[in-house]
Amino acid sequence: AMVSEHRITIDIETIPDQRPGAADAARSRVMAPSNYKDPAKIEAYIAAKADEAWRRTSLDGGYGEIIVIGYAFGDDEPTAIYRDSLEPGSERALLEGFWEMLDERLVPDPTWVGQYVHAFDLRFLWRRSVIHGIVPSRKLPMNAPPWSREVADVSYMWTGERGRGIKLGDLAEILGLPTPKDDMDGSMVWDYFREGRAKEIVDYCVGDVNTARAAFLKMSFLESMSGTPEEV
Questions:
Q1: What is the pTM for the complete model shown?
Q2: Per-residue pLDDT for 17 more than 70?
Q3: Which DSSP state fits 79?
Q4: How far apart are CA 44 and CA 23, in angstroms?
């Protein structure tokens, strides 16, 4: 059996670019289609797309920021570390706390498990660490192929597709697993955060960690070996 201690299931929640002028910068990246000639129509198009473009920066670790890192070691209860403010330095503190915590957990060569974990979560964590000049305490398998032992993207495991894949909620439904996707999805994270609802975001993130891990265990035929020690 695969040693569960080597597994780290992870999920991050992110928000759009918080730097001053970020919304204007996102706006400047919006181009109206070439068949638009009327200046008023062009302006209306750009205005409509500008907020969307800024919000989309939450999907790119070069611009967006991390507010929650949910994780679970092996079959342990998932937990999360998070920030509930936008104070300068709060993202840096979050990342430092995460890498320090991983350092203390002496997981030698982890297998990183999660939904789009390779293309999204690990890449985002790596980019933010680079930007803040924080050295990750674990080598991140940025260039590992998706079938490597270092990463287990549950979407890739199911579909064999690197690009589109399958949504976690859909995968959970197919596999008969409970899903946390009922009340919330990633597009709502920034609005919840602005409203001071960090706790709900954390619960959502931890729910995703649970679901992704359950999907991994089911697809690896390890389901019967999971569960809390007293159940086994």
A1: 0.89
A2: yes
A3: E
A4: 16
